[in-house]
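Consider the tokenized backbone below.
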């Protein structure tokens, strides 16, 4: 029996511009799946010492909690849309009869945080239609924060419309990032890029869950963010949520190949442009003989 979602899916009356459009049927399906997976993750968080953990690669952990959450999301989405394709971090691709629709799912983003009891992790679900992300969700069950967006309908946090921060000066801005580590990414380039960020921004943050880093850009908590060596499930939902919150996203060269290249730069117009400029300069430095 699926427990009722904690929060009614229909929302309290909102006023003026914060009043959100009713969620579409497809977003309601995604929210139900995320709540169910979130409940399972919270249960596993309480029994972390008994959780089966294995390594997928250097410093890249997977737990029974990741796999359980993915199966729950898959079952819920497949029940509602049996013909849609499914790409999940743990189970890989499950093709569907309907080739124009695909779910892109990270059942537990921030597994290392989760294993350490750090409450910064999320379930992330995106719906891709003919190569374009049209609906997105990132849900942190630890603090019950639900970030959603639908193409052309804006972005919301727990039913309240969100927008990227308006800061224009780097010296007042906080930038988030992901850092390369042993066996993953270019350590020298990473050092150059963080050095440049430390010299120009008011603060640098490494929170350890890419999907939430992007959701926090959309909510105006972080002013800018960049990361490389990511996978489609780390990026799909967050890229739509940032765009629908009035933000800009691109790959690290300013192009649109975010999912293909596995990298992202995000922020408001000024922050996005300035961070791209800093990364480009750091890249040139990194290759100097
Ligand atoms: C990881 C997190 C982390 C990022 C890694 C991702 P996972 O996702 O998003 O912040 O730096 O590259 O793999 O493995 O916990 O789902
Ligand atoms: Ca992830
Ligand atoms: Ca994951």
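A designed sequence for it:
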């Amino acid at each position: 029996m699926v427990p009722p979602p904690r929060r009614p899916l229909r929302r309290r009356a909102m006023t003026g511009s914060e009043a959100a459009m009713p969620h579409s049927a497809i977003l309601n399906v995604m929210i139900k799946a995320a709540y169910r997976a979130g409940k399972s993750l919270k249960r596993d968080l309480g029994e972390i010492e008994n959780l089966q953990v294995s390594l997928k690669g250097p410093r890249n952990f997977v737990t029974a909690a990741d796999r359980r959450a993915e199966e729950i999301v898959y079952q819920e989405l497949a029940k509602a849309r049996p013909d849609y394709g499914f790409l999940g971090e743990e189970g890989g691709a499950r093709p569907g009869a309907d080739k124009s629709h695909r779910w892109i799912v990270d059942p537990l983003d921030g597994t290392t945080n989760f294993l350490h009891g750090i409450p910064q992790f999320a379930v992330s679900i995106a719906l891709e239609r003919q190569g374009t992300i049209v609906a997105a969700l990132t849900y942190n069950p630890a603090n019950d924060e639900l970030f959603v967006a639908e193409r052309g309908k804006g972005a919301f946090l727990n039913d309240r419309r969100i927008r990227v921060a308006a800061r224009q000066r780097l010296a007042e801005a906080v930038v988030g990032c992901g850092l390369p580590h042993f066996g993953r990414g270019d350590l020298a380039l990473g050092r150059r890029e963080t050095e440049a960020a430390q010299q120009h921004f008011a603060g640098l943050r490494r929170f350890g869950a890419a999907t939430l880093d992007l959701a926090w850009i959309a909510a105006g908590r972080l002013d800018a963010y960049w990361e490389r060596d990511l996978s489609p499930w780390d990026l799909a939902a967050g890229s739509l949520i940032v765009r629908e919150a009035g933000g800009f996203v691109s790959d690290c060269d300013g192009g649109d190949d975010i999912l293909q290249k596995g990298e992202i730069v995000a922020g408001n117009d000024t922050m996005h442009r300035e961070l791209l400029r800093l990364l480009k300069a750091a890249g040139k430095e990194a290759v100097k003989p």
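Residues 1-16 have pLDDT under 50 and may be disordered.
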